[in-house]
Amino acid sequence: MTRADAVDQYRSAVKRLAELADEVAAERSHDEVLDALADVRAAVARAYQGRRPRSERGGGAQARILAYLLKHVGEWVSSGEIAAVSGIGEWARRIRELRVEEGYEIEEGGGRYRILTEEPNLARRERWRTVTSIRNGQGSSLERVQKLFEALVGEIVTLEEIYRVAHGIEGAELARQLRKRELLPIETNADAPDLDPGDHRLASLMEWDRLHPSQALFGEDIRRQVFSRDRFICRTCRMGRSTSGTADRAFYLVIRHLDASPDALPGLQAERLTDLARLASWCNRCASKGSA
Ligand SMILES: [Zn+2]
C-alpha cells in the first residue's frame, strides 16, 4: 500500500465515523460505531508505518503489538489495527506468545483482542518457563515427563505441557508408562472428578505413596468405571478428594479387589480379576494401613 492509499483510507474512515453522528446521538448502532472507530485507528497505524525505523522489523513486532494493546487496556482492538501496528503477517502468533509465554491476559473475540491488565500473570509466565527449561533439558522423553510431574507435584499438568516436554511423543502414553513402571500415582480424569479429559496430576512424590505394583493390572477403563460408580469416594473411610483435607497428606484412589490381597491379584483369572462387582474404590491412606 502506498502512502497516498493509506491517507485515502484514513479520509474515508473518518468520513464514515462522522456519518454515524446521528446514530451516536440516538444511542443506536453501538457495534457499528465501534467498528468505524477501529477502522480509523487502523488507518492511523497504517499511515504512520513508514516512520518506523527499519531495524525494528521482525523482533520488534511483538513489542509494538504489546505497546499498542497496553495503550488500550480493557478496550477491544481490531485485528486490522494489530496487523497494521505490527507490520508483519504473523501477528497472530506474536499475540499467542504474549499470552502463553509472557503471561499477558489477552482476550480474543470475533477477530478482536483486548488486554485486561497492564501487568502479566506472573504465575503463568513462571509456569511456561518451568516447562520450557525441562523441555530443553537432558534425558529421554520419559525422563523429562517424569521431571515435569515432579516439578509440578499436586498440580494439574495439561496434555499440551506433557507433549511439549516429550517433544511431540504421545504424552498420555508416557504418563501411563510412569504409572506402570515407576508406580507414580499419576491421576487422570478416570481417577479424580476435578480433572478434565487430558489433564494429569502426580498426587504425591512420597515413597510411601507409590502405587502397589498390582494397580498396573487395572487400566484406565476399569478405574473409570469403578471410581465413578463409587462416586470417587473411598469405601472404607468414606472420604473423597474434596473432603480429605489434602494439606498434610495426599489423597488418591486405588482399586481394591474384595477376594484377594494385592499380592495375590496376579494369580486371579482374568474374568474374576476384572469383575466390577468384586472391585471397590479405596483411598491411598486406607490401602496403606495394612488391610490392603
Ligand atoms: Zn479411605
User: What summary fits the major beta sheet?
Assistant: 3 strands, antiparallel
In order across it, which strands form the biggest sheet? 1-3-2
The residue-averaged pLDDT reads: 90
Q: How many structural domains can be distinguished in the coordinates?
A: 3
Order of helices and strands: HHHHEHHEEHHHHEEHEHEH
Which small compounds were modeled alongside the protein? zinc ion
Give me the secondary-structure category: mainly alpha
Number of extended strands: 7
Helical percentage: 40-55%
Rounded radius of gyration (Å): 28 Å
The separation of the N and C termini measures: 75 Å
Shape annotation: elongated
Beta-strand percent range: 5-15%
Which regions are unreliable across 5 or more consecutive residues at pLDDT < 50? 53-58
Note the total helix count.
13
